[in-house]
Amino acid sequence: MLITVISIKRTENGSRMKGVANLTIDDMLAIHDIKIIANKTFEKEGQLFLAMPSRLTKFKTFEDIVHPINAEVRGGFERLILGAYRMAIQNQYDSLTLVLKEEKKAASFANITLEDYQTVQHSSLSK
């Protein structure tokens, strides 16, 4: 399994939600609305976490619709999505889309880094 497309949209509106990510897996499956959330004590860069897409149950609790099954996959999602989010901040983009380079599609998921992606689209923040 490889994340072949990462799309980030920043939502800097003063809330704890800092952005939303959409992923494409193996050019075949899309996962939308992965939220990038700041911890309540967000004082240092890096205190971010991912909230997977969820739905409200009849018991008024949230249940993930999609989620990583093991720590390796969760770690890979966090590394790539949060890295892309930080790239958007660094370059002052409000949105960013990265596509896995064709020659990297034979690599192992654990060995993929942001350098293995190319920027195909971005929009800059309005001044």
Features of the shown structure:
two-stranded antiparallel ribbon; globular; 42% strand; 16% helix; single chain; alpha+beta; 127 residues
Biggest sheet overview: 6 strands, antiparallel
Mean pLDDT: 91
- Helix tally equals 1
Strand elements, count: 8
Strand content: 35-45%
Strand order of the largest sheet: 4-3-2-1-7-8
The ordered H/E elements are EEEEEEHEE
Shape: globular
Low-confidence parts: none
Helical content class? 10-25%
| Structural class by helix and strand composition | alpha+beta
Rg, Cα atoms, Å: 15 Å
End-to-end Cα distance: 39 Å
Give an overview in words:
A hairpin with a 5-residue loop joins strand 5 and strand 6. The chain has 127 residues and is of the alpha+beta class. Helices cover 16% and strands 42% of the residues. It has a six-stranded antiparallel β-sheet, covered by helices on one side. A two-stranded antiparallel ribbon has the order 5-6. The radius of gyration is 15 Å and the shape is globular.
List the SSEs and their pairings.
Blueprint: E1 3-10, E2 17-25, E3 29-38, E4 48-51, E5 54-56, E6 62-64, H1 71-90, E7 93-100, E8 117-124
Antiparallel strand pairs: 1-2, 1-7, 2-3, 3-4, 5-6, 7-8
